[in-house]
């Protein structure tokens, strides 16, 4: 893929906008009540409002909240091409597997320090296998090559399904931030999975956690600032290339059967999420969007770290969606 890059932007802690003052945001973002109706489109603060000291605290929390246990596996030939798998802690037969892709503007983060431990323990207790995928970071490879690496990891898990006691026909893709961009692209552009030897029908569903760049060309107007600059640095300035890397522009059948988008309040990305949901529905997929309290980087990190906590409202939405779309079959 050709990538015409701009000068390298300074790396912000988030590939999205930053929210309100510390005193206003912290309790609201951590509470995370669901927002409905036209309130999801409310104007949000710019990316200068959060103190850098608070950004540093959030980054530290994210990087130290590493899930324990699990088994490392190499799905490819390079050191970066590895994943970690956790088996369900409840008794299940051929468990559905949730495959998680970390964020970081495609260029920072790892499969352990950008995941959030509570979601791993919570979902494995519910009977799901959970895998988190490491991949080579940009600019060592292109974003398209990253997406292919994640597809290859899915192919590895599907081929090993019998020995791993997972259901090869019930794979759920989950990603946060730029990882949400990766999994929604895998759920709409079948070329990556096909190269990995995987049918789109294998993907039971796709879960995007506070994603962006569903419509990459529109990001320049929707989210000017760090979001757009990070996108242009990684994906380039060429319109055709941006469309090729946009889940919304690829959302023609066949797609994954069902999508769940969980977002905090970021004005431009909410607009894109609504557009993406409608395009998916028009193409025959089921798609749902839920928006929760918490603007900018504060809410962005709270969703990553708190999803899986029964007291965080998005957890209940996720559980309900999984019960309907990928129910766990208990062993006799």
Please characterize this protein's 3D structure:
The chain has 332 residues and is of the alpha/beta class. It has a single domain, classed as 3-Layer(aba) Sandwich (Rossmann fold). It contains 14 helices and 9 strands. Strands 1-9-8-7-6-4-5-3-2 form a 9-stranded mixed sheet, sandwiched between helices. A hairpin with a 7-residue loop joins strand 2 (71-74) and strand 3. Helix 4 (143-159) packs across helix 6 (178-186) and helix 8 (216-222) runs antiparallel to helix 9 (226-235). The N and C termini lie far apart (49 Å). Residues 1-24 have low confidence and may be disordered. GO terms for molecular function: hydrolase activity. This is BD-FAE-like domain-containing protein. It comes from Aspergillus calidoustus. InterPro entries: AB_hydrolase_fold, BD-FAE-like_dom, GDXG_lipolytic_enzyme.
Given the structure, what is the number of helices? 14
> Rough shape?
globular
Mean pLDDT: 90
Q: Please compute the radius of gyration using only Cα atoms.
A: 18 Å
Spatially, the strands of the biggest sheet line up as: 1-9-8-7-6-4-5-3-2
Largest sheet: 9 strands, mixed
Listing every helix as H and every strand as E from the N terminus to the C terminus, the arrangement reads: HEHEEEHEHHEHHEHHHHEHEHH
For the structure shown, list the relevant keywords.
GDXG_lipolytic_enzyme; disordered N terminus; alpha/beta; globular; 9-stranded mixed sheet; BD-FAE-like_dom; 9 strands; Rossmann fold; hydrolase
Task: Present the secondary structure layout.
Blueprint: H1 22-31, E1 34-35, H2 52-64, E2 71-74, E3 82-86, E4 95-101, H3 117-125, E5 129-133, H4 143-159, H5 161-164, E6 166-176, H6 178-186, H7 191-195, E7 203-209, H8 216-222, H9 226-235, H10 239-244, H11 247-250, E8 258-265, H12 267-282, E9 286-295, H13 296-306, H14 313-325
Parallel strand pairs: 4-5, 4-6, 6-7, 7-8, 8-9
Antiparallel strand pairs: 1-9, 2-3, 3-5
Helix pairs in contact: 1-13, 2-13, 4-6, 8-9, 8-12
Organism: Aspergillus calidoustus
GO molecular function: hydrolase activity
Keywords: Hydrolase
């Amino acid at each position: 893929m050709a990538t015409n890059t701009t000068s390298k932007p300074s790396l912000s802690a988030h590939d999205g906008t930053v929210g309100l003052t510390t005193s206003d945001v912290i309790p609201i973002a951590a509470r995370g009540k669901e927002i409905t109706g036209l309130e999801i489109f409310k104007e949000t603060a710019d990316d200068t409002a959060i103190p850098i000291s608070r950004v540093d605290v959030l980054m530290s929390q994210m990087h130290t909240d590493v899930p324990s246990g699990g088994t490392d596996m190499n799905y490819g030939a390079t050191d970066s091409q590895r994943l970690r798998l956790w088996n369900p802690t409840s008794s299940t037969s051929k468990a559905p597997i949730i495959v998680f892709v970390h964020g970081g503007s495609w260029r920072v983060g790892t499969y352990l320090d950008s995941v959030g431990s509570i979601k791993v323990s919570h979902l494995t207790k519910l009977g799901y296998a959970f895998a988190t995928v490491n991949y080579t970071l940009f600019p060592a490879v292109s974003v398209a090559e990253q997406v292919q690496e994640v597809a290859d990891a899915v192919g590895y898990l599907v081929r090993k399904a019998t020995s791993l006691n997972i259901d090869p026909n019930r794979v759920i893709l989950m990603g946060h931030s730029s990882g949400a961009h990766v999994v929604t692209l895998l759920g709409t552009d079948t070329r990556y999975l096909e190269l990995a030897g995987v049918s789109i029908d294998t993907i039971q569903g796709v879960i995007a956690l506070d994603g962006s760049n569903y419509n990459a060309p529109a990001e320049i107007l929707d989210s000017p600032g760090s979001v757009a600059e990070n996108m242009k640095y990684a994906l380039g300035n060429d319109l055709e290339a941006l469309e090729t890397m946009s889940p919304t522009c690829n959302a023609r059948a066949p797609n994954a059967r069902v999508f769940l988008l969980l977002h905090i309040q970021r004005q431009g990305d909410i607009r894109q999420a609504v557009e993406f949901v409608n395009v998916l529905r028009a193409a025959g997929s089921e798609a749902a969007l839920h928006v929760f309290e918490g603007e900018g980087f504060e809410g962005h990190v709270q969703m990553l770290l708190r999803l899986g906590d029964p007291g965080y409202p998005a957890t209940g939405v996720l559980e309900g969606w999984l019960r309907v779309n990928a129910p766990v079959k208990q062993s006799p």
